[in-house]
Amino acid sequence: MAIQFHCEHCGESVAAPDDTGGTRGKCPHCQRKIYIPMPEEEESGELPLAPLDQEDERRRLEARREATRLQQELLQEQSAPGEPKKPRRDGLSATGAKNVPVALPAKELNRLIVQFVEAMGGGNLDQADKLAAKLSPHKSQATILLNTMSSEELSAYGLPVLPRPVLMGFLSQLRMKLQGRSG
Known about the structure:
Low-confidence stretches: 88-97
Radius of gyration: 31 Å
Structural class: mainly alpha
Order of helices and strands: EEEEHHHHH
Distance between the termini: 68 Å
Number of helices: 5
Helix content: 40-55%
Mean pLDDT: 78
Number of strands: 4
Largest sheet: 2 strands, antiparallel
């Protein structure tokens, strides 16, 4: 089938063989050099799409959950040599005193803040409140980290991919919760 087009100089109709598409030739009417366009695709309509494979989607979601679980496990593992010791889980400080908040490692604070943002982004406000309560005894540490996060590139902290104003709003809400103000 021939490529049908109009000369860009004289406007006359020109026919060229399919295999000449994308090259230059001479117009048979005005003898000027013209570009011969590529032949049009016969199937230039919509792309055929296959139906969504529910089993494949389930496996993909399960893999994402497993990756998140493993990431959280890694964050909770023992400290590496040279890092400060992890806080005791019995509520006692390193000196054995009760009711003295134990400083949380920055990784743990970061993990709780990321989980708070994920809960807020998913509309799970009860879970977000529980996470804010976990951060409350460490509000001075958490506030410093929140201030640092707000002034730097947020993706470096592992926060979910959300528009920056939304992320900043969630961080601001957490800051207000930690200061005892409703938000």
